[in-house]
Amino acid sequence: MDHLETRLFAAAFGSLLPLPTKLEPHLEEALRHVLNHPGTLVRPRLVFEMALAYGLESGHARDLAVSLEYFHTASLIFDDLPCMDNAQKRRGAPCVHVAFGDATAILAALALINRAYALSWRAVAGAPQERQTRALAYIERRLGVEGLLNGQSLDLRYSTLPHDRRTTQRVANDKTVSLIRLPLILPAMLGGASESELQLLERLALSWGLSYQIVDDLKDVLQNSEETGKTVARDSSLDRPNLVLAIGIPAAVERLTRLIERGDKALERLIEQRPAIRFLKKLRHDLNSESTRVAQSACATRGPA
Q: What's the start-to-end Cα distance of the chain, in Å?
């Protein structure tokens, strides 16, 4: 993503949640804090390009991109709360609850969710009715009690569950993979993708989602807050799911390699059917570069055999 595109998406992230003049000042300050720290913006860029590749109008593509990023950002605000992960830093800045208190953080997250649904409804309005119905149901499934919420609850109760690969991956599937499925699959669904394409996208989302989670788990174990821009070493201290802690660094790195290879097979078949999504190879390259860097760091930390 070049600098101009980054600025454009940052501007959209900051402007599509209008703040009324009579908004309570403390809540307004908290929301401005959130809107001024949009993160890397990789997810909305992915949504936007997927939407254009499947024929969505650019305005609808933008609304869908920002809506999914608002959902994701709200989930991070909740995740950082003292009753959840009790994090202190997010996106290189103090967490919302640290700067403005728990209650205001919750209200800010709800404001993002409320606006995200409004933008989602606006984005799907241009699609045929049957696609609208399917897309909105998919959002509910991935963000609701079948997806993100269930994963978060499993995360919070992890100390009572077996600390093995199966349980840890189940949490990641409901949480991380759900938030990868939406950017990849929702635009394709609205654009009338074939069932074959949707199945391959589901396979790709699973491979990439679990890969991103393993990379994040490795960072939590191996890196510091300055390197990641967020609080680290929380999984061990809070007894939360972390595949590296569950199966060890070597097995986690091996698992990461296999997942990326599976994703590559799905991606090649997808590009054969839909050449317009060839840009996903760039995202795959970035994932591989990041995973290689973190894996090398893991090997260096372990030292010679």
A: 39
> Tokens 């992230």 label which residue?
13
| 224: its two tokens | 């510091």
- Contacts of residue 246, defined as CB under 8 A and 6 or more positions apart, other chains included, come to 163, 164, 165, 167, 168
| Cα–Cα dist 272/268, whole Å | 6
- Which tens digits make up the pLDDT trace of 19-53? 999 999 999 999 999 999 988 888 999 999 999 99
Q: Count Cα neighbours of 189 within 13 Å in the Cβ-side half-sphere.
A: 23
**Would the pTM of this model clear 0.85, i.e. be above it?**
yes
Tokens found for residue 117: 């649904």
Cα 77 from Cα 74, distance rounded (Å): 5
Question: Which secondary structure element, helix H or strand E, spans residue 90, and what is its range?
Answer: strand 89-90
Give the Cβ contact number of residue 184 at 10 Å.
24
Reported as type and span, the H/E element at residue 38 is none
Q: What is the pLDDT of residues 159-214, one digit of tens each?
A: 899 888 899 999 999 999 999 999 999 999 999 999 999 999 999 999 999 999 99
Alpha-carbon span 288 to 47, nearest angstrom = 20
Give start and end residues of each alpha helix (H) in the chain: 3-15, 25-35, 42-53, 58-80, 96-100, 102-124, 129-143, 148-156, 165-172, 178-190, 195-222, 225-228, 234-238, 243-247, 249-273, 280-302
User: What confidence tier does 220 reach under pLDDT thresholds 50, 70, 90?
Assistant: confident
Instruction: Identify residue 29 by its one-letter amino acid code.
Output: E
Q: Does domain 23-302 have CATH number 1.10.600.10?
A: yes
